[in-house]
Specification:
- This protein is mostly helical.
- It is built from four helices and two strands.
- The chain has a two-stranded antiparallel ribbon with strand order 1-2.
- The longest helix is centred in the middle third of the chain and has 15 residues.
């Protein structure tokens, strides 16, 4: 776990939108997704529930936040 992953996680949790988070962080959306995916793999839990129309925190994501 590193500070970039945590910053991405907090920003996505704030906006509940990967595109808006990427703009706020001034990095690409795929880079944000990669950081979140890597963090989820390291923690062994899904932090966000993603559909084509929405992003929500999972229970684990809420606890981690």
């Amino acid at each position: 776990m590193n500070t970039v992953q945590l910053e991405c996680f907090i920003t996505v949790a704030e906006y509940l939108n990967f595109s808006k988070a990427s703009r706020a962080l001034k990095i690409t959306q795929p880079a944000v997704s990669h950081q979140i995916q890597t963090l989820e793999e390291e923690l062994g839990v899904k932090l966000f529930s993603r559909t084509s129309k929405s992003v929500t925190l999972t229970r684990e994501g809420s606890l981690f936040l």
